[in-house]
Structures are given as structure tokens and as C-alpha cells.
Amino acid sequence: MTFLPGLSQAALPTTVVWAPAMTAYNFGHSHPMAPERMELTAKLAGSLGLLDLEHVTVAAPEVAADEELRAVHSPEFVAAVRRVSEDPDTPDEARGLGTEDDPAFAGMHEASARLAGGSLLAAAAVLDGSAVRAVNFGGGMHHASRDRASGFCIYNDAALAIQRLLDGGIRRVAYVDVDAHHGDGTQSIFWDDPRVLTISLHESGLTLFPGTGFANEIGGPGAQGSAANVALPAGTGDAGWLRAFHAVVPQLIGAFEPEVIVSQHGCDSHRLDPLTHLNISVDGQREAATAIGNLAARYCDNRWISTGGGGYNVVSVVPRSWSHLIAIAAGRPVPLRTPVPEDWRRYVRDKYGAKFGVEPPELMGDDVDVWWRSWEVGFDPNDAVDRTIMATRKEVFPLHGLDPWFD
Q1: 109 has catalytic annotation
Q2: Can you give the residue ranges of the Histone deacetylase domain (predicted)?
């Protein structure tokens, strides 16, 4: 598929989900999922003028109702989250509540359901036409499954947004997940639903949690081809990551022809992230977001809901990556050589200098070359990334009428 650089730059009505109350999603001081990453993203996006654009609406999410949560989660699980939320000293580890990854805390249900409410708000805005694009950078809780919390995720807001779209009359939704970790929860929820195509591009489960997401995971018996997984080797950099993205994602989106794209943009694929082993730059992450926006423009009349996700370098990476996501969704991309606003840098030094102990970045990009080899140049069997790509294409492409060698 030809890359179309201009498609995502129209000033389309865009909803950005944000309220300071979202930072109540807080597992504690020593937990990697620092709530400050949301505040710093909103602050940087504001300093860049993105939240003041005439066509951008900043909307505060409500706490999702239990009935809404039960669209993708079991009633027993929602009840369990409520119990642990009210009494954190009685964890339910069988449901992933009160574990090392997901420590129990007072108000857990409300905080988690507010993030979920943000993605439901985004879906409602797209359905009623008040927005064409929507960003919930506080969402992306892709490890939560129907009955269990996992991997810092309690309620799966992306799955809830997808289900809301389906219930609202959308016939096909494509979910694209570029977090370093496999989007296992979202995949499992729609495993048997041929209306939803889940694509996950991630570090291999051989070296990273949750240990899933291999090429042979292709969807349930009645929905084969509805899941596609690209399990990249540890150490993969921008060139390999973007080659894999462009060798799999556009072709499947084109064949599936979704009416809306929902995407998850965990930025823990960055080379400075402390929890993962990929070697991606902010520049590469911005390139992937641009490509997804272009696919939404080409196939979905621009309808695109994007979420955050993982990302544990709180100062240097997350705010820049997600501000780029907001800018791309709003059709006002920020050039990579743009200086990071000095008022934001000063705010970080004054408020968080002692806590995080890092100097704020100077530019909105990492000043790297993100050139990648197009799949058209041919398959290299000696390249581990190419072998990964081919494994995925062989498993999934024929199920969509595509040739794994040439399409």
C-alpha cells in the first residue's frame, strides 16, 4: 500500500479525553504506572497549543456504570473489583486484584471505571458525529480480560469502546495495538467475533510479559483471521519495527475494510523504557501514529479512536509520544525538530525534578533516521524481523485473500 503523508492533516472535529481526576488511577508511589504521565501529557499538549485548537474539544470522562462495564466484563468480575476497591485488605488474586502488578487501592473501581468511561465517551462522540477522531491517552488498558485484571489493567477501555461501536451499528472495527506488550486482553475478548480484527505489533512473548501473541494466534474457530500478531525480537529498532508495521497492518486493514479504527499507542517500545527491550524512538512512534491516521482516512472516513497504554519513562518519552498522537489525530502534526516549550520544561524541573531526576527533553523528537525497507524489496530469510513478518503473513494473509509473499 502507498503511504499517503497528507491524509491525516485535515482539521477534523476531535475529542480529547482529559480531566485531572483521571490521575486517581494510582497503584502507589513505587509502581511503574505513574499517574504523572497523564498530567505531563496534558500539560505538554496544552503548552503546544493543541488543546486550544478550534476544532478540538477537551471532554472530562464520567465513571462508567456497572451495566456499561458488563458489556465486555463478567458481572462477577465487576463485583469483585468493587469489593476490593472498598476493602483493599481483602484482595482477589484469582481475578488479578491485589497482585504485584495490580495492587489493590481504595477507589480502584471508580478510578478504573473513569478511564473506561473516557473510551466510552470517545466511542459515543464518533457514533453521534460530534467528533470524527478521539484520543483517550489515559486509556489503553489492553491486558484486562473478561474475568481478570492483568498487567496494570483493571477494565479494558479499548474493548469497551469497540463493543459500544458495534452496539451502535458499526459493522466492522479494526483494533491496532503498537504497545511493546501483546494486546492479549482485547484479543481474548473478541477472539470469536469476526466483526473485530485485532492486530498487535509487540515484543515477542519469549522475552516479555504476557508471554503470548505469536503468529499462530489467529482467532477462534468461527473467526479465523480476526487476530494477527507480529512478535518482534528483543532489540528491534525503528527500521525493523516500521518494516513490520508496513508489511502487515495496511494490507490487513485494506482487506478487512473497517468502518472505524481503534488503536492502542503504548509507548513502552521506546529505547529508554525501563520495562521492555525494544529500541524504538519517539520519531518511530509518531510515524506509526501517522500511518494509522492515514489508514483511518483512507478506509473509515477518518473515524479513529486512539488510546494510550504502557509507557514508563514518565518525563522524556510518554508526554512527547502522546502529544504527537493528539496532534496527528487533530490534523496538526508537530514537527520533530520543534523545541519542547520552555514553560513545560520549567514545570517539570520545578515540580518533578527531585522525584524523577532527569532533565526534560529539548526537542519533540529524538533526531533519528526512521527509514525502513519496504516489503517490496523482498524477504530476507536471514533477518529475524523478516522471519517474524513472514510467519504472521503466512498464518493470516490467506484468510483475507492475500498472498503472503507479494501483497
Answers
A1: no
A2: 31-327
